[in-house]
Design goal:
Belongs to the tryptophan 2,3-dioxygenase family. Its cofactor is heme. It catalyses: L-tryptophan + O2 = N-formyl-L-kynurenine. α6 runs parallel beside α7. The protein is mainly α. The chain contains twelve helices and no strands. It has one domain: Methane Monooxygenase Hydroxylase, Chain G, domain 1 (Up-down Bundle). The protein binds protoporphyrin IX containing FE and N'-Formylkynurenine. The site of N'-Formylkynurenine has 10 residues, from loops.
Length: 278
């Protein structure tokens, strides 16, 4: 029999007593020590890991969207395209992840649902930050975080700045498009209302892509993002209906009915309306 392969023979480092290792760098002791099921149900581990991994991807999405916002503000569109493409890919990843959770049946979920108390994804501050950053703003959604002032502050900081869509519209204004008076509002805390001027600006851009290539490309990056985001909402509501039917949510909403209502939300409404006008 040949001797077992020894990676150190070709230089693999095997001693990490005084060196930074893989798990040191990644702080795996924290990440892998953070799964604490409250019940003995087999599927609770799946439920916890599904949510924790989603939150990690959302953290990256926030990092990318906030950088994209800064880039657009600085008229650096090409880097923003790269970041927005990555955000879409993150959502694609989150969309595929639903296939893992869908392997959990109502019987299996019922075994540990009571342990969740009144906690719910409705209280995910990172999800809310993504919605606020994209442009879907509703100050009522700050309330579940009132008991954590540092999270409220983070969400307030997002609301104090123009959203991704606001920045796209401000960019058009800087480039001579008439986007109406509301584009330059002082208070960014509310979702901007739809405007005929903004629609007309996108219409001009979509009618002459060669002339307005950068704005056209930005518009398509935004549509891509919303397309993937809508699929996430749809996957969520379908999984929810499959697992809890029309039961009320642990967060206190009507459950699947509330989530179906949320399917109607449009992040970048004029970008969808413009299609009808071309
Ligand atoms: C068994 C799986 C799941 C069920 C039954 C479920 C159920 C629900 C329900 C009923 C709501 C409405 C709020 C409430 O009253 O609780 C909700 C909201 C929410 N869930 Fe889930 N959910 C599941 C998995 C997930 C996963 C994996 C995520 C990923 C992070 C997630 C994130 C959210 C978010 C962000 C909201 C707020 C949505 C909004 O306000 O538009 N959920 N969920
Ligand atoms: N709202 C869910 C519970 C739930 O899914 C959940 C509970 C705690 C942490 C995250 C959750 N995920 C999404 O809402 C339910 O009503 O069953």
């Amino acid at each position: 029999m040949s001797k077992p392969y020894d990676p150190s023979a070709e230089g693999a480092q095997m001693s990490f007593k005084d060196r930074m290792s893989y798990s040191d760098y990644l702080h795996l002791e924290k990440v892998l020590d953070a799964q604490e099921p409250l019940s003995t149900a087999h599927d609770e581990m799946l439920f916890i890991i599904q949510h924790q991994t989603s939150e990690l991807w959302m953290k990256l999405a926030l990092h990318e969207i906030s950088s994209a916002i800064r880039s657009i503000r600085a008229d650096r569109l090409e880097p923003s395209f790269k970041m927005l493409t990555r955000v879409s890919r993150i959502f694609e990843q989150l969309n595929s992840a639903w296939d893992v959770l869908r392997t959990m049946t109502p019987s299996e979920y019922t075994e540990f649902r009571d342990s969740l108390g009144q906690s719910s994804g409705f209280q995910s501050w990172q999800y809310r930050a993504i919605e606020f950053m994209a442009g879907n703003r509703n100050v009522a959604m700050l309330r579940p975080h009132a008991h954590q002032p540092e999270l409220t502050e983070k969400l307030e900081a997002v609301l104090a700045q123009p959203s991704l869509y606001d920045e796209a519209i401000l960019l058009l204004a800087r480039n001579g498009f008439d986007v109406g008076a509301e584009a330059n509002k002082i208070d960014w805390r509310e979702t901007r209302s739809e405007s005929e001027e903004v629609l007309a600006a996108w219409q001009a851009i979509y009618r002459d892509p060669q002339r307005y290539w950068m704005f056209y490309e930005l518009a398509e990056k935004l549509v891509d993002f919303e397309d993937y985001f809508r699929r996430w909402r749809f996957n969520h509501v379908t999984t929810v209906e499959r697992i809890i039917g029309m039961k009320r949510g642990t967060g206190g909403t009507s459950g699947a009915s509330y989530l179906k209502k949320m399917l109607e939300v449009e992040l970048f409404p004029e970008l969808w309306k413009v299609r009808t006008r071309l």
